Amino acid sequence: MNAQSTESPAHAAPAAPPHHAARRRTKGASFWKPALLGLAGLALVLWLGRLGVHAYRYVGTDDAYLAGHLHQIGPQLEGQVKEVLVRDNQTVQAGDILVRLDPLEFELAVQKSRAALEQAQAAESQTRATAAQSDTQVAEAEARVKQAGAQQAQSAAQLELARLTLKRNEQLFARGGVVSQADLDNARSAFQAAEAADSASQANVTADESGVASARAAQKSAYAQIAVATASTDVAKSALRDAERKLGYATITAPTAGRIGNKAVEAGNHVLPGQILLMLAESSPWIIANFKETQLAGLAPGQDVEVTVDALSGETLHGRIDSLSPASGAQFALLPPDNATGNFNKVVQRVPVKILLDPASLAQLGDRLRFGYSVVVDVRVR
Questions:
Q1: Which of 132, 240, 307, 314 is least crowded, fewest Cβ atoms below 10 Å from its Cβ?
Q2: Count of H helices and E strands in the chain?
Q3: What is the pLDDT of residues 221-261, one digit of tens each?
Q4: Which sign does the torsion angle of CA 20, 23, 29, 31 carry?
């Protein structure tokens, strides 16, 4: 039984020598290792070449961010907020109502100013009527002066006639009584009467001339009152326009289209002029890239720019340089550096460069762009 279960040594397969398997493994490793090293070296050369070409053609910086028009919305009057008509991050159009203040105080001021204007206009109309009446009085006084002058001329003629008659009668009476004593007495009485009438007419002329002077003085005063009343009317009109302006300020509207942010107002809040209630960001951002001063030699307005946004991986935007800042960013700081004092350490300055995005790039991302996003900028200089 043991002879059937045990194989004969003559039928067993011969075993491979151990040094043959080791030799095959060594040959495989010696083939792949140089190949991998060659591929790695080729990839490194290609990568370094790409970096070299990019460095030759482009000037870039990652010290850049998206910027744009950011409007601070606040009241121009003190008052209480009656209604807030926008939400956080809401899109609005130019002219949309954002906040309403309680208008009661301003409406009362408009009504009061309108009543004051009507009163001033009534006073002006009355003054003009008085001036017109003074014109009539002056004309009447001047007419009376002319009439008195005519009467005085008539009385003077009558006085002259009475004088001649008296003189002639006196001569005739002295030559022999051709004229009776009664005729002489009548002539003398007529002369005296004519003389009295002439004196009275002269007095009337003087009185009427005084009346003209008085009427003209009243006329001048009336026209002066017109100037005062007109000025009062203008003041009332200005007060009404100011009251209407303030009433208009009770409604706060969007100055342009954009999106609401940083809303810090609720109905019932008491607000003051200049207080920031919310922010309005326009929808057309640009880029501020801070280049080193050693990079500025190759930069000029109009050059093409490639932009990648950190928050939007895989998106490449295009634009162009709009302008370069007239000074480095340090010069616009609250406390500019003063290198004339203390120890001097040379620091490479950075100069802000404004870059405008192409309309196609803006349309491509739309409202996905946010002010303050970090971007990487590459400017094609060669």
A1: 314
A2: 5, 14
A3: 888 888 999 999 999 999 999 999 999 999 999 999 999 99
A4: negative
3 state DSSP class of 47: helix
Is the CA virtual torsion 58, 59, 61, 66 positive or negative? negative
Q: Which domains does the chain have, with CATH numbers?
A: 59-69+284-335+345-380 (2.40.30.170), 72-102+251-279 (2.40.50.100), 104-247 (1.10.287.620)
pLDDT band (50, 70, 90) for residue 13: very low
Distance (Å, rounded) from C-alpha 159 to C-alpha 153? 10
- How far separated are the first and last CA of the chain, in Å rounded? 94
Hey, what are 212's tokens?
């003209």
Residue pair 143/215 in contact by the 8 Å Cβ criterion: no
Distance, in Å, from the CA atom of 191 to the CA atom of 185, rounded to the nearest integer, reads 10
Q: Which tokens sit at 171? A: 């001569």
In this predicted structure, the answer to whether residue 356 has a pLDDT above a threshold of 80 is: yes
Task: Say whether 264 sits in a helix, a strand or coil.
Answer: coil
> What per-residue confidence (pLDDT) applies to 56?
64
Position 262, amino acid: N
Helices (H), 177-327: 181-249
Q: What is the pLDDT of residue 199?
A: 83
* Range name among 27-31, 123-127, 310-314, 356-360 with the lowest pLDDT average: 27-31
DSSP 74: -
Quick one: which of 127, 119, 325 has its CA closest to 224? 127
Please tell me the total number of residues recorded for the chain in this structure: 382
Do the Cβ atoms of 254 and 282 come closer than 8 Å? no
Q: What is the pLDDT of residues 106-130, one digit of tens each?
A: 999 999 999 999 999 999 999 888 8
Q: How confident is the model at residue 9 (pLDDT cuts 50, 70, 90)?
A: very low
The span from the CA of 359 to the CA of 371, in Å, is 17
17-26 in b/e form (b: 16+ CB < 10 A) is eeeeeeeeee
